[in-house]
Write the structure tokens for this entry.
Amino acid sequence: MKASQVNTGVSLKMSQSSQKFSSTGTQATRVIGVLAIVVMAWVVISGLVFTPADVVQGESVRIMYVHVPSAWIAYLAFIVTAIASSFYIFAKRHSLGFDRVAGASAEVGVMFMAITLITGSLWGRLTWGEFWQWDPRLTTTAFLFVTYIGYLAVRRLDGSIEQRARRSGVIALLAVLEIPLVHFSVVFWRSLHQRATILDPNGDVKMDGLMLFTLFSGVVAFTLVFAWLVLHRQRTMLLSDLSNERGLDNAILARQSENASN
Amino acid sequence: MDLTPRPETISPKRRRWMPIIVLSLVGIGGVIVVTQFLSSAIDYYCNVDEVGVRSGCDTANRLRVQGTVEQGSLAKSDNTTEFKLVFNGKSLDVVYSGDPGGVFQECISVVAHGRLVNGVLESNRIEVKHSNEYEAKNKDRLENSGSAACSQVQG
Amino acid sequence: MQNAGFIFASYVLTIGAILLFAVVTLRRAKESAKLVEDKNKPWI
């Protein structure tokens, strides 16, 4: 059998010196990256210096400018994972590009969720007096975090890329249902955690102007960071999927030449 | 070596939708069970007016009681902090061994952990439950006579 | 600043985690980019 018969859409030829090997950066990612750094710098300076201390909580309120955006972007990341997974599962042409976006977004989401839990426990120690309490909001958040670690573990199971996409896609569609449970846990049950300030059901935002502006800047900065990380991460995933596939093809070719020589 | 592609398994449309429908039903069922039937088990605390009234708030057990520290009731001595916890028109005397520290002050919502002894909550742990309101300190305004939290509406 | 340690720790951890993720991703990208020709990179 000729090598061309095992066509996987990837060139099996070894690289030639004339070919270029660009990494995952593009003009768009560079612009997003620079914007992310600029807005993030503003958030750090404003959060630590310009914003006032809170009348009740004092200086510890400054943790809010990283805690709240990271929680929101973690939610956003998991929602993106679910949407991309549903595109993979329900679209006629099961495009693996959606699976890679889902996986990349979940990885970034888990990182933001970890940041949320750590900064939250630091803030909790300062205001409540406790690093951790098994209260409804904290418990459901921990549960969400563990669920997505499980999701990432499933993506690393043995099997083809299509199997990975199918298995993890179903989990992503299930796991996203936990987000409303986490968000409304402070409404459903009595919790030590405060209720929503910005997403107040009555639309009555009780927050000082510069505090609010800095918080929104934080959301913008973290969204840019999220976009940058996901773009790079899903491209990296494509590269490793392709080189794994090529490794498999090479192994098949090697086996074939073995057979031929026998 | 056989490298011929495996025959594609035919998946009817119904089969693709079934797991999603089942999973959604399980999810909705789970949410109903958790919000409607488990709430007293998951609720973090009892309110002052529910002590000895609501199930799960029995006075024989260790309690977590939520209420607002009444203005003017806070008295600190060497080893203890005494104050009145109010909520919904009912009040409860609390004796805490030590100084709660942190942002603990009058008019703030707290959760006091402890046991009821002769109608007084002997507490060894107090958590401050800050509200969802944020207001700048040192704004141009008249000095509050009491605690900063008294100027905020308690949520 | 009161509680400065806790506040700085939360900022340092946040930015540190993001930077670590970015550096690891870029390093991996660089390594695997050498194994794949540019014509197979849809973003080029």
